[in-house]
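Allow me, if you will, to draw on your knowledge of protein folds for a short while. I have a record of one protein: its chain in single-letter code and its fold written as discrete structure tokens. Could you please explain, in whatever detail you think fit, how the structure tokens follow from the sequence? The record follows directly beneath this note:
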Amino acid sequence: MKFAFVFPGQGSQSLGMMAAYGDSPIIRATFDEASAALGRDLWQLVAEGPAEALSQTVNTQPLMLTAGIAVWRLWQEMNGPLPIMLAGHSLGEYSALVAAGVLEFSEAVPLVELRAQAMQEAVPAGVGAMAAILGMDAVTVQAICAENAQGQAVQAVNFNSPEQTVIAGHAAAVQRAADACKAGGAKRAVMLPVSAPFHSSLMQPAAEKLKARLATVAIARPRIPVLNNVDVNCAENPEDIRAALVRQAAAPVRWVEIMRAMQAAGITHVFECGPGKVLAGLVKRCADNLTGGAMHDRAGVEAALLIVKG
């Protein structure tokens, strides 16, 4: 059977989330490696909190990268076969690139910490916002954003499913567009508790900082194809991968197209590798012939093993 792994991004974190995998030495060792790379204890943060610190972007991004790679290494330790394709949602793309051998884990951890800091600093607190629009097609959402920009930035930035699009930009413009979506027939328009308007054009300063840092990071050719967020293709040339990561910071996450590209490649099962179940839940909503599975605990990893080994 043909299967793929996808890695979650920011928003899937929760206090104590790694306890669901049991007392696994490989998971603890992965957190120890990340903690050494950052000079602070990520294991204590995920195990004990506080929860507010867990949700700070500068902590969440290295934490979720580490969690995804910890579960990937657990899969390998359990003799799980290699997926034929990988992808990650936003930050999760970095986890996918580490799993594919493109980035060294010890380099990726401080890299995503810098990415988080750059995104946080790109827009002053309170200036930007994000909202999830539910029950409205993406084309209509985009048109409503254009109508309500009024000289400010507001764009569709996460195409999560045909019925779920996240918008981001200047706070007032996002609020106008969210209200207009609700008035125009959306089931819900929910303002999100985030600290910056991720993936909007306002993130361009962050992309520039990332570009400078990525120029110093070693990038290898992938051992497993990775479908990227920004182009929905599997770049192989290290310079193309580097450029796609730079553009990704201020460009939309095209998740629906990623799922459909996996379906077109003959993949039948997509497993979410890491804590959380959001991406597994989106699989069927994006592509009819795909089956999703969540490896959000030890039982989920074992269930996925049974499926892929037949």
Notes: The CA atoms of residues 141 and 249 lie 21 Å apart.
